[in-house]
Structures are given as structure tokens and as C-alpha cells.
Amino acid sequence: MFEFITRKIGNKLLVTFVGILFLVMLIEISFRIYFGLPDRLKIAEAGSKEVMDTIFATIKHPLTVGDSETIHRDLEEIGNKYEKIDVYLCDFNKLISFSTDKKSINKKIDYVIDNEDFSKTINKSFTEEQNEAVFSKVFKVQGKRSLISIFPIKNSPECFHCHGSSRKILGAMIMKTDVEDVYRTVIYQMRRSLILTIFAFVFAAIIVNLFVKKLIKNPLNSLVEATHKFAKGEMVNITGYPKDEIGSLCETFNYMVNEVAKSKMELEKELTRRAKLLEERDELVALLQKANKQLKELDTLKSAFIANMSHELRTPMNAIIGYTDLLLDEVDGPLNEDQKASLKKVAANARHLLQLINDVLDISKIESGKIELRPNEVDLKALIDSIMVTFEPLIAKKGLNFHMHIEKGAEKLYVDEDKTKQILINLISNAVKFTHQGVITLRARISERGLDKEGNPQFVEISVADTGIGIKKEDLDKIFDKFAQADVSTTRQYEGTGLGLSIVRGLVALHKGMVWAESEVGRGSTFYVLLPFKKEVFDAPGPVIEERMAEALAQYFEVPKEVFLEEPSYEGKSVRCWDYTQCGHVNCPEYGCPEKRCWLVLGTHCKGMKIASWPEKVEACRICEVVRDLVLHKEPVMVELKPSEKEKVVVAIDDNPDAIDLIRKYLEKDYKVIGLLSSEEAVNQVKEIKPVAITLDIMMPKKDGWQVLKELKEDEETRDIPVIIVSIIDNKTLAFSLGAADYFVKPLDGHSLLRKIKSIETYCPVKKVFVLERDEKTSKDLISILKETGYDVTATRDSKEAINLVKLQKPDLLIINITDPDSSAFDFLDFIKGSSELKEVPIIALTNKELTEEEKEALNGRIKEIINKALFSEEQLIKELKSSLKKIGG
């Protein structure tokens, strides 16, 4: 009861109002009882006094003269006139001498009025002088309440002749008035008030309930109902609300709903647009991946070709240089000065050409993986000294200075000596080449980059700094690319193939180290390389892993470190970054590396990354698409093969997880959507899941949607499951010919997809077909083609007979010509519509004309297909009918 009141605001108001009414009426009754009775008694008392004055005035003279007869007669008349009044005249001994009741004469007054309080009162009135002439009080006499008024008869001179003058009070006139009617009147009024209160209570409850229901409860119920629908996603507006505060609330609600609906519509448009963009992106990524793969193959072929060609070129170059040197040594006879000068030019250019060929050959070997290192412990200072012998004449010629600083602990390297010498020669050669004045400084120290798992250093950082021309900031990220120099004009001015730094990076990468540069135009450049000094670097398989990168990224994204120690995956498979996106780095050193966690690998860097090592690398990896999409937000597990038995499952087959997620959001209120990213095992998984419907994309890698659809329809376990194509390409003819239930072209209309799946959920294979066709030839053709296709066909030309036949046979499909002259086919449709057993049977309508919108509306959406016979030849009509049967599921 209490809950019933507290749960409804209208009930609260009703109870409050009725409570107030009840309280008012209770107060009214109390006042009526408390004040009403005394007031009426006062009126009766005043009346008694007036009557006693009149009686005493009447009998005063007879009393004075002792005319007893007159007194008896007067009192008798009074007794006859007033039935409820008794008057007694008693002497000071309380003996009654006269009375309207003759039986009481000569009796004591306190005997006649038997009440102890009255006796005390009458005695008191005889002994004490009273201020009031008449004293009245209610006494209960013989079970009845009576107002008894006492009028003391005082002694006076005219009475002295009989009673003397000694007594002040000679007796009293006493009048007894029956006041039971007064009390009954008050009780009657109280009862009337109570009845009025009850009536008012009921009346008020009804009236208040009607007003509260109309003015408050109904508008609030409409608002609550609309709110519930809104919470479920329905955009409903409230109408017919009052123009008060509740009406203002309803108007606010309608405004909110309209704004949300507008936002929802804009959101759906945005989702559709993004879905389309995702489709386009996926296509572009697929094309880029294919192009990238082809480029890698071409690059490998090119490297192999260059390696072969370089070998073929170097062989004759060796002969040219050798024979030129022999001529200069005058082995074959003396030469004049002009001949020597010419031969020296030939030898110099031949050696330059040979160096170019060697560089091309080196870079080709690096890229083709044909270089094998022979690491040993190497003394760094001795190595540099051996190199500087070559450069000292040139340094002296240009007036440059060379300084070398090797810190303690960095004296030894564990490297391939020849390759390290080649690295340093390239760096020092560039420094000398691009420096016209100043100093070249080589420093070596133990590096804090590339620490092992225990945090111990294992690399020496060697830097070569010059005071040369410097490099523009925007050119720093491409100077290590093949055939690239910072500026084209630099190539012309300083010559060179642009392969030196590429060779350096390749050789450093073979040592599991890294290279980077810092520069400022006009102030010089510094090139850094990390080379190992511990044998363990080569003993450990794979590249050097910096776990500090995982710790830094985990701290930034506030996730466990283990997240970044796992390999990235896409479509349930482990992938490398370039499998997912195009980083833009044309010479990524990690191609061919088994390690897929590129953010952990020392020296692996994307385009634009200046230093590929902790801590500088963290900043670049924080915005990496692979880290954000594949590591932090792993695609949801699309394959869930064990739905509960109560769930209706729809399988979405699409290689794009976002497309599956979009379908899931559209259908999740009514269906459990299981996504399958791979089309290769889709058919087997569908057999296990047994969904009510399947959505299928067409453009998928390895096995496209057409092949999947064909396999689904060829398998006995899956052929009856409706398949809806959801694709960016439009080929409905092929889809329906393969057995698709419907076709949606992306961007997807989710609401239409939901309606379609609900409509085909009741799908059952069509075996029995009923034909209602008035035209005999058309009917025969339909029966013939349907029977040839394997259907059990029943046909009639009469609508009334059709009703009787379908009651008995319960067909799976109805084919009806709805444009017969007497429109009796619509009677048949009305019967089908009203039949609980047949109303869900799909109908194909045949017409002889194009239906108007009103006629289509009249069909009430129960027609699966409408075929206008007038538009088709006989052959085309049969073909169209077959297509419609396949769409329905036949």
C-alpha cells in the first residue's frame, strides 16, 4: 500500500489532498461538539428563565392573597401547554404545595427530583443569598438529563402578614425542563457532519483523482513512456501535453529527442562515410602491399643483376689498371713525358671507376645478404692509425687538423676488421671531402644504447665530427638512402655515387649496431656509429632488443610492459609493420629480419626517425600506427564458435574488422554477430556455428566471396542458410544466380540489413508452390518450368477454389496474378492475410501492368517479388521467375 502511494506522484497528491480534507472535517466535528452543546443549553436556560419569570408574575398575586385555586388552575394550564416542563412550588421545608404534576403535591422536592447534587443545590439556595434570581443546571433525573431552574421566592412586606419577617426565603419555584432533545440534536448534527465528511472524502477522491490523472498523471505517464522508448533507441515525440510546467518538461524532452535524432543521423552518416573510407583504404593498402612486394622482388633482382654486372665490369677494369701500371713502369719500353701523363690519367680514372664499381658491388652484396662477417677483437686505435695513413696527405694538403679521443673502455671492438675499416674510411672520407677548414675529430666511448638484458653496455659509440659545410635538417633522414646526397648540387661539386653512407648503414646493421647523424648548415656534421665490443652480441640470435623501449611505451600509455613485448597481430596472424601499413622508409633495415617487434629493435627506424634507439625512438613510436592499432588496440577476437543455444547468431564474413564491427553494432540488439576475418575456413566454421543468416563480403584475399558463396550453397549443411552479400562492388545478377538471399552495396544501410535478416529469419526451403493464374497459357508455362525445376506445383484459375486448395496443401510459396479483371485475386490475398497458418508464406505477384504506389501500398508489404509480365518475353519471364525463386530461397 505504502509502495503504491510512493511510486506515483499522482497518488501522493491525491492522498495529501484527501488527508487535508479529512483533517478539516475532523476539526469541524470537534468544534461542533465542544461549542454546540453549551450554546444550545444556554439558549434553553434563557428560555427557562423567561418562562419562570412569566409563571411567577402570573401566580404572584394569588400567592399574596392566598388564592390556591387560581394557582392550581394556572399551573394546570401551564402543564397542559408545555408537555416537557414541570413546575413545582415548594416552601422552605421543600414540601411541594403547587405543581403542574398534581401527584407530586405534598411531597418533598428532593423526593420528586431524586438527585443528590440537586438536593445540595436546593439546600444551598435556601440557606445562602443568591445573586442571581434564577439558577439553572442540568441534572440527571430518573436516567434523563433535565435542565432544572430554581427561582427562590424571597420574603417581602406583602408576605409578612402570613410568614412574618424573620425568613428571607419563603420557598422556591422549581422548573424541570427535559433537555434530552438538545443532546439528541447535537448527536444528530455530529452524525450528519460525519456522513458529510465521508461523502466529501469519496467525492473529493474521485474529483481529485480525475483532475490529477488528466493534468498530471497522464502527461507524466506519456513522458515516462517516451523516456523508456528513448532509452531503447526510439526517437519519439510527446504530443497533447498541457501548457504548464509539465508541458515545459515535455517540450524540453521533445527538443532533446530531436537534437539526439539529428546527432544520431549525423553520426550514422559519419559512420557510413568512414566505412566507405575504410573500404577505400583497405583497397589501397592491398594495392600498396602488392606493389611493395613487387618492388622488393624487383629490388632483389636488381641487386643480383648489379652484383653480376659489377663483377663483369671489375674484371676488365683490373686488366686496364694492371696493364696501365705495367706501361707506366716501362716494362715494355721507355715512355716519353706526354705518354706517361696520359697513362697516369687513364690509371687514375680507371681506379676511380673501379672504386665506383666496388661500391655498387658492396651495396648489392649487403642487400642480397651475401656478406658474411668474421668478427674478432680489434684494437680501435691501431685500426684508425692504419686508416689515417691514407688520409694524412689529403688532410695536410687542405690544411685541416685531425684529433682522436678514445675513452677508457672503448679501446677494443669485437667486429669484422675489414668491414669496420670500410665504415670508418667512408665516414672520414666524407669529413675530409666536405671540410675546407677547421678540424676533424674522432671520438670513441662506451655507449648507453643497446644495453643487454642485465643493463650492461655492449656497444662503443664512435663519432666523426667535422667543421664542414653541414647538412640541412630536412635532408638528414635521406642521406643514408642509396644514391642520395644531401643536395644535387653537392653531387656535381664533390662527386661521388651517394652509396658511401648506405654502405655504412648496411655494414653497421650487420654488426647489429646503428648509425645516425647530427648537423648544422655551415657549422659541420657529426656521424655516429654503434659497434659492438662484446662477443655476446653476435652469439645471441636476432637483433639487439631494447626492453627499455617497452618500459617507456608502457609508462606513456599506462599499460603493462608485457603489452609491448608481444608480437603485433592482424586478422589473427603475426605480422610485421609493413604488412599492415606503409611506413614510407624505402630501405628499412628490418626487411628479412625474423623479429617483428620493430619498436624494440636497436637501429630499426621509420621515415623521419632521427635516432633509432631509446630514448629518442620512444617519441616516434608513440604516434606509430602499428603500435596504436595492432599492439594497444588489438582487433577484437572475431571468431567465437560457441554461442549459447538461446542466441540467434549472424555470421559476418569480411576481411575488414571495422566492417564486421559496423555490422555488429547494427544487429547487436537482436542478434549475436560472430565475425570471421578469414574466408578460407569460413564454410567449416559456419557448419559449427549454424547461424540464422550470413553476411558475406566479396573482395577478400586468398578466397573471394563468390567462391565462399558457391561452397556454402553446394554444401548440404549450409545451403539453406540465407546469405546476404555486403560488398563495395555491385553484381547482383551473379549473386542471385549463385543463391544469395539479398545484396547490399556499401556503404551499408544497417537498418535495411536488420529488417532483411528479420524477414528471412522465418525462411524455409520452398518445395510446394501454388499458382493462381487466370491466363491458361501462362499457367501452363509456369507449371511446366516449376515442375522441371523440381517443385511440387498446384495451380488453379479460380480464386474461390484457390482458398480451399491452400487450406489443404499449405504451400511454401504463392505465385498470384493480382491484375485479373474482377480483382478476385485480392480476395484471395485478404484470405491469406487473415490466415494464421498462411500469412507468413512468401508471395510472388504477377501483373500485366506497372503498379502504382497506392496499389503497392495496398499489398501491405507481403509481396516478396513483383514481376510485370508485360515487360518480358516468355523466355525472359521464366528467367526472371527463376531469379526471384532463388532470392526467396527456393
From TrEMBL:
Record's catalysed reaction(s): ATP + protein L-histidine = ADP + protein N-phospho-L-histidine
Pfam families recorded: HAMP (PF00672), HATPase_c (PF02518), HisKA (PF00512), Mcp40H-20_sensor (PF21563), Response_reg (PF00072)
TM regions (residue ranges): 13-35, 194-212
GO CC list: membrane
EC number(s) reported in the record: 2.7.13.3
Cell compartments where the protein resides: Membrane
Modified residues (4-aspartylphosphate): D697
PROSITE patterns recorded: HAMP (PS50885), HIS_KIN (PS50109), RESPONSE_REGULATORY (PS50110)
SUPFAM superfamilies: ATPase domain of HSP90 chaperone/DNA topoisomerase II/histidine kinase, CheY-like, HAMP domain-like, Homodimeric domain of signal transducing histidine kinase
Gene3D superfamilies reported in the protein's UniProt record: 1.10.287.130, 3.30.450.290, 3.40.50.2300, Histidine kinase-like ATPase, C-terminal domain
UniProt domain Histidine kinase: residue ranges: 308-535
Response regulatory domain: residues covered: 649-761, 768-884
Sorted UniProt keywords: Coiled coil, Kinase, Membrane, Phosphoprotein, Transferase, Transmembrane, Transmembrane helix, Two-component regulatory system
The UniProt record lists the keyword Membrane: yes
Domain of life: Bacteria
GO molecular function, one term: phosphorelay sensor kinase activity
Domain HAMP: 214-265
Chain segments annotated as coiled-coil in the UniProt record: 261-304
Name this protein carries in UniProt: histidine kinase
